[in-house]
Write a structure and sequence with these properties.
Layout: H1 3-26, H2 32-51, H3 60-72
Helix pairs in contact: 1-2, 1-3
């Protein structure tokens, strides 16, 4: 897997799990599934940061999203 793809997927998965966590907390439930998705997203981001030589800077993150979108979206 490409580090740019892993970074993009990890950030999207983590961002989508935030509303789920807030919903579980407001319903007074344990956010188990949301915690698992946060761990998956964080693991993908961590893997991408470790595999890319030099890592990512904050300015390179939007470029990674655009390059992934250009490669995989028609």
């Amino acid at each position: 897997m490409d580090p740019d793809l892993a970074l993009s997927l990890g950030l999207v998965i983590a961002a989508f799990s935030v509303p789920s966590i807030l919903s579980a907390i407001s319903d007074r439930r344990a956010p188990r599934a949301s915690a698992v998705t946060i761990l998956i997203g964080g693991g993908l981001v961590l893997w991408a940061l470790q595999t890319k030589p030099g890592g990512y800077t904050l300015g390179q993150v939007p470029d990674a999203f655009v390059s992934v979108a250009a490669r995989y979206l028609p």
